[in-house]
């Protein structure tokens, strides 16, 4: 293809992407040297916690052509997922009796939806130019999706390490198509956080240790989703009622005043997870958990971690007879992880002795 043909194709790809439901498509080159240096420092400091996969693939994560030989360009896409206005999210977070689930996980698993749309985009390209080398990624395999999105002009990486778009905030998913087409790269997005440090100040566990620096070992999203073992006791109280992920740093970001509600029905809440109480979810059996999280990103953490997280949140909730009874019924749960956190939760209530 000539440079002129590549430029024309790039413009068409962006139009097709919007027709498929993406809010924006950008194109990046393969140079991730800056991101590679940052990742190596982060790994050397051990801030990845139990996420050993972050170092498992060596330079394939930061050198796209090593992961997918022949890659010349990366098509980066973003899709909005915000299911409700931020005032409603604030109300859910401020009610200690309610279970707070990060808003990206309220609906169907986004991985499948985005992957199908990106595959359809790749098929459109193939219809236009014939067979070409490509591979689709959605938060899968060793891909540096955030640096790629910034290079593709979709937004900049904010001080909380999420990608922010000046016209759309940060409530969006990312996906990529690695391809062997020499497409013209877009202008990388410039950082516009300025002196603001609202995300740093709001973090309940002080996981954002400085501008653009995240210690995953303290992050509530990591602790409630990625971490498989016992949650450190000194971090349990700050978790509050957050049982799956945390959105605090996004909720306070001033750029999210421009965020728009998602038009995707699959991202709307399922199983009343946007309004569910801690007690109602704690009452789920493992069979109910598997049934009600079918097709949800939540299912990947499994029942044991789900109950662990709920026990911590109940330990942080205002004391009540109902909570003490629910916890006491599972005080001798056969799963050691659940049992440990349930017993801790009982110990957080002044009247816990009455139920022993």
Automatic annotation (TrEMBL):
Highest rank taxon of the organism: Bacteria
A GO molecular-function descriptor: metal ion binding
Active site feature: 139 (proton donor)
Pfam families the UniProt entry points to: Fer4_16, QueG_DUF1730
Key words of the record: 4Fe-4S, Cobalamin, Cobalt, Cytoplasm, Iron, Iron-sulfur, Metal-binding, Oxidoreductase, Queuosine biosynthesis, tRNA processing
Cofactor(s) named in the record: [4Fe-4S] cluster; cob(II)alamin
Subunit structure: Monomer.
Protein name: Epoxyqueuosine reductase
Species this protein is from: Thiohalocapsa marina
